[in-house]
């Protein structure tokens, strides 16, 4: 048997059936698991079910209880199970059985089984016997597991870990969205303030305020100028009051003029018989010149006045 095993192994290896480039990757998140294993009451089936449900209670398991011990009947049963589960379009397939002698495991050393595994479009995990047991199916399969339990570990993802990862991603995504919203709100507020600054209404308000300020400044300057001019006018009025003839008349002085209205200041401006008008505080006096007297050393003459 050993010689047959080595001969078939060499032949299939030379055909490239063990080559890594033909190995299909086992999906990380398989939802449907197919198994070609021993009878429904066998230990391999129980191990696969227990491990799969423990890791992910939502995974679907399709089992094909094949004859995995014996001669041609076992080979055809395994091949039939592989093809049937392939038609069911499972995500990954476990092909194997529990431990046993080389005779018990020989069905997995047959070329028909090896070709069925190689031709299968679904990734196949080989789980034949114990860790020390090696079959042709192990070399052809896409992935080898030491036991059916280990195969279930490889085929079924840990639901709790994925759930935790999803929750972490959700938390990170929520924080990222909140930060993005915060950044957009800040940007929006900045744009709003900028638009408000550039808005024509803002410009009009600024111009209006400048106009009000200019008006207030002009009014203040005008009031200051008017106050200054009022003060100067008051000074001029006081000055003019001192120079007013009426003011002089009120102090006991009189104003004399001839008939032509000329002010008489000297004696040589009049002659005897001229009509003179004398203005006093309360009225006007008319008189005629009868005589004149010079006060600068001249001879005093006599004068008479006729009203």
Description:
The chain is of the alpha/beta class and 307 residues long. It has 2 domains: 2-160, Response regulator (Rossmann fold); 246-306, no CATH class. Helices cover 50% and strands 14% of the residues. The protein is built from 9 helices and 9 strands. It has helices at 2-14, 43-55, 72-87, 111-119, 136-140, 148-155, 159-198, 200-243, 245-250, and strands at residues 32-37, 60-65, 92-97, 124-128, 143-144, 255-258, 275-280, 283-289, 305-306. The strands form 2 sheets. It has a 5-stranded parallel beta sheet, sandwiched between helices. Helix 2 (43-55) packs parallel to helix 6 (148-155) and helix 3 runs parallel beside helix 4 (111-119). It is rod-shaped, with a radius of gyration of 66 Å. The protein starts with a helix and ends with a strand.
Number of domains: 2
Number of helices: 9
Major sheet summary line = 5 strands, parallel
Helix content: 40-55%
Give a quick rundown of the structure.
The protein is built from 9 helices and 9 strands.
List keywords for this structure.
alpha/beta, Rossmann fold, four-stranded antiparallel beta sheet
Topology:
Blueprint: H1 2-14, E1 32-37, H2 43-55, E2 60-65, H3 72-87, E3 92-97, H4 111-119, E4 124-128, H5 136-140, E5 143-144, H6 148-155, H7 159-198, H8 200-243, H9 245-250, E6 255-258, E7 275-280, E8 283-289, E9 305-306
Parallel strand pairs: 1-2, 1-3, 3-4, 4-5
Antiparallel strand pairs: 6-7, 7-8, 8-9
């Amino acid at each position: 048997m050993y010689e047959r095993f080595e001969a078939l192994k060499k032949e299939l290896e030379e055909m490239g059936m063990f080559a890594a480039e033909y190995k299909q990757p086992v999906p990380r998140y398989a939802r449907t698991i197919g198994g070609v294993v021993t009878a429904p009451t066998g230990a391999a089936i129980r191990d696969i079910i227990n491990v799969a449900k423990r890791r992910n209670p939502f995974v679907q398991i399709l089992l094909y209880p094949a004859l995995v011990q014996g001669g041609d009947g076992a080979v055809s049963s395994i091949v039939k199970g592989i093809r049937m589960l392939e038609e069911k379009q499972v995500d990954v397939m476990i092909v194997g059985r529990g431990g046993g002698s080389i005779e018990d495991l020989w069905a997995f050393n047959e070329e028909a089984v090896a070709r069925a595994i190689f031709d299968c479009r679904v990734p196949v995990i080989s789980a034949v016997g114990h860790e020390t047991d090696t079959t042709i199916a192990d070399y052809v399969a896409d992935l080898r597991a030491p036991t059916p339990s280990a195969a279930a570990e490889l085929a079924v993802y840990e639901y709790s870990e994925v759930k935790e990862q999803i929750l972490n991603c959700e938390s990170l995504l929520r924080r990222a969205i909140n930060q993005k919203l915060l950044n957009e709100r800040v940007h929006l507020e900045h744009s709003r303030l900028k638009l408000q600054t550039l808005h024509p209404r803002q410009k009009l308000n600024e111009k209006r305020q400048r106009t009000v300020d200019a008006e207030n400044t002009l009014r203040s300057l005008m009031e200051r100028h008017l106050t200054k001019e009022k003060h100067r006018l008051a000074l001029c009025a006081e000055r003019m009051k001192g120079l007013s003839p009426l003011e002089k008349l009120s102090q006991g002085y009189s104003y004399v003029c001839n008939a032509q209205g000329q002010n008489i200041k000297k004696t040589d401006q009049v002659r005897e018989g001229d009509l003179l008008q004398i203005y006093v505080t309360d009225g006007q006096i008319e008189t005629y010149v009868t005589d004149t007297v010079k006060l600068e050393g001249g001879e005093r003459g006599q004068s008479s006045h006729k009203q």
